[in-house]
Design brief:
By secondary structure, the chain is an all-alpha fold. The protein is built from 15 helices and no strands.
Amino acid sequence: MTADALAEPTDRVGKGWTSALSLANVAIWVGWYGPLQILLAQQAEDFAPGTGMSKETLLAWVTGVGAAVSLAANPFFGALSDRTTARWGRRTPWIVAGAAGGALSLLLLAGADGLWTMALAWCLVQLTLNAAFAAVTAAVPDRVPRLQRGAVGGWLGAAQILGAVAGTGLATAAGGIAAGYAACAVFAVVGVLPYVLRYQDLRLAATDRPTWSWRSFARGFWLSPRRHPDFGWAWLTRFLINLSNALVLLYLLYYLRDSLHYDDPERGVLILTAVDSVALLATVVVGGVWSDRVGRRKPFVRWSGVLMAAATALLAVWQTWPGAIAVAALLGVALGVFMSVDFALMTDVLPKAADRGKDLGVINVANALPQVAAPALAAPIVTYLGGYRVLYAVAAVIGLVGAVLVSRIKGVD
């Protein structure tokens, strides 16, 4: 299909298209969250004694380096997909290559025998799965009209949390680190097949194909906040709220084990993830649909961010297992609304149709950069500056600032 690849879409997408794209998104998040929630922490604990680092520091270092790769990979592959002229379309080749590469990288991670192979393999996972994720994300503004993007964003948000649950469940139930990685690898490939096999991608018309230049390609990644202030404020809002959430999640396994002294911390992570997921699923699609119907985005983003900050602050003062469950439920309710409506808001502030993949990749840096910043902030706070109470108090303040700053966006209601 070549017609109207750069036009603003007007025809509503069907349930089948949304379901297939959402399943592809589930597959990508399984590849990320199985390692992040369980497997990387277990490997860090195994490898730490031979490195002279604590398990917390080793995990922070590996996840931080991997997130740094993600920072560059997402906008890079988004920009490449914008310029791809393959017969299969702009986005599909990158979804296929990214999922296949991610599966192979997960298998390499399963065979890691120390810090350096673990770090290298995790960087490859981030590189490849970000290629697929950039293409999946860009398919939405390519194909979905503005007043349906809250609903589609809701289903993609549901897919993300289902990916987290599935990844955590596979990693826990597989019976070992290597088996957990293998299960996630298989899911990452199988999950993208319905979308890439059933739905034809849009192709650029000959008149729309850009002239290639490495200089213009590299310069295109900078979007001036002065020229595009709404884009800049939207990016900052997402970054701060995601940073707050990353600070909560990073040491969850260690928090349950070392602070709450929970008997089975791996099972505890799975329980909290499930509680958060059920609450999120109750609001993620509803919030997006509601936003579409009223034609407003900012109030939903603002108040969901405030609720997340309040729940995180509660975690700082109520450090018990029942408190952790209550906070997981509150965070899920708020995060569901935030994920769907914030995604729709982001697509509403994109500067140019020709650069949708690249610009969404730049926005997705606000998802990855917190993974770099969170370990740098969390490790010294937990180790030297007051432990988990101070960590969660800092996270609450950061999230609240992000929620307040959404009011600075002027071009979206």
